[in-house]
Amino acid sequence: MTTDKPARTLKLNPGAASKPPADPYAPRRAPVRPPGPARAKTVSASAPKPPRAADEPERRERSRDERPGQGGENRPAGRAPGPRAGDRFGSERPAPRSGGPARAPAPRRDAGGWGGDRPPAREGERGDGRFDAPRGGRDSRDARDSRDTRDPRTSRDLPRSTARPVNPARPDLARVGNVRGEIRLNKRMADLGLCSRREADEWIARGWVLVNGEPAVMGMPVPPDVQVEVLPQARHQQAGQVTILLHKPMGYVSGQPEDGHEAAATLIGAPSQWRGDAATPADGRRFAPEHTRGLAPCGRLDIDSVGLLVLTQDGRVARQLIGENSGIEKEYLVRVQYAPHGPQGAGVVTKDVQAIFPAQQLALLRHGLSLDDQPLKPAQVEWQNPEQLRFVLQEGKKRQIRRMCEQVGLHVVGLKRIRIGNVVLGNLPVGQWRYLRADESFA
Predict the structure, then answer these.
(1) pLDDT per residue over 386-395, tens digit each?
(2) Which residues make Cβ contacts (< 8 Å) with residue 184, sequence separation at least 6?
(3) Residue 2, pLDDT above cutoff 80
(4) ∠ CA 344-347-351 to the nearest 5 degrees?
């Protein structure tokens, strides 16, 4: 028996012939995967988190109780509830007592708490079993290393929100300068004349300062009536600091070397110590190399000026001489020429300048001039001889005497400082130095 089947015809795609031939060098595309079960989405650390309502824990408990077969009206009478689908460890809840209202479920704490039926959340966990960021990697290690993330009771990792900082709590530094008149401790110690601010910070860091009997903290604000105590270690260190008086020669700078000129501190050494001081050293002190470390010049003296220069390791001396509220007098001898049109102009007078110098210009030198748009303090200015003036100032602006003289038509050809406070240069030779004696004081 034969069955006639209709002949099958091969249908071709009419548009297939019009396609261009495949490029052998074109990159291959990845095969398309068939649709499969939906995978769980990972939550990125930077993804915004929806705000959690205050009653979210209660709403979750109500929604679980209202599920069919697990609670509420659909639960069979007298049957204890089984493990809930949302519980991680399948913990059971007792049925509510008959004859009274059902007890409201306790609200579950944050992801880092211990309440409810969940164990303490691990680091980065949000409370729903998901993490804000992967546990591995550099960021998570840095976050764990920067603070204590171990709970002392169970040695488990605490979440970031409850991790304790490593550094102890510091006082509220924002209260500095408030209405109660509190100031920083280092400034208070400097105002009391105990040391400089830099020394105060060093002593506080070493634990040598007590505030009302307790160890001080760096940067802490204190009231004006605070009791500050310095330990003997700080006093011993301060007693070893020296103050040196140098007769600076011309061509040396007071501070750091500049423009090929050496610093005046390079002159401090055993060969240049004044013989009168070496024979009877101050307080039995002998020169030692550590006396040249940390020497700071107290006051400016120009390259082309000579005279008394103070270098010290003691912050109290530096604050006394160059502090913002310093009123120590400095005396200078200034040799001048009268040059109304400049030192290179016409009419320069080098002899008997006192006879031709106007009296009103001398009054301006004493009071009435300004430098850098700031009025100068009153000064004592008088003639020592026909070509030399004596200046006594209470401030020390850069090249102050030379700039003052230029404003009244005088040209300075020589300047020498001979006194700072109660300490005089005396017969100290040029280029030599000596220690400040215990019976000497600038104020």
Answers:
(1) 999 999 999 8
(2) 176, 219, 220, 221, 222
(3) no
(4) 100
Active-site residue among 302, 304, 352, 439? 302
What is d(CA 110, CA 52) in angstroms, rounded to the nearest whole number? 11
Backbone region of residue 344 per phi and psi (left: phi > 0; alpha: psi in -120 to 50; beta: other values): alpha
Structural contact between residues 357 and 365, judged by C-beta atoms closer than 8 angstroms: no
Q: Do residues 220 and 177 touch, judged by C-beta distance below 8 A? A: no
* Range with the poorest average pLDDT among 29-43, 117-131, 363-377: 117-131
Q: Calculate the CA dihedral of residues 112, 114, 120, 125 and round it to 10 degrees.
A: -30
Concatenating the DSSP letter of every residue in 83-105 gives --TT-SS----PPPPTTSPPPPP
Cα-based torsion angle of the residue sequence 171, 174, 180, 181 in order, rounded to the nearest 10 degrees: 100
- Going along the chain from its start, the domains and CATH numbers come out as 175-237 (3.10.290.10), 243-326+427-435 (3.30.70.580), 330-420 (3.30.70.1560)
Using 50, 70 and 90 to split pLDDT, how confident is the model at 276? Answer: confident
**Using 50, 70 and 90 to split pLDDT, how confident is the model at 198?**
confident
For the question of residue 302 being annotated catalytic, the response is: yes
Which of 224, 211, 230 shows the shortest CA–CA distance to 171? Answer: 211
Least confident of 76-90, 327-341, 402-416: 76-90
How far is C-alpha 191 from the chain's CA centre?
Answer: 22
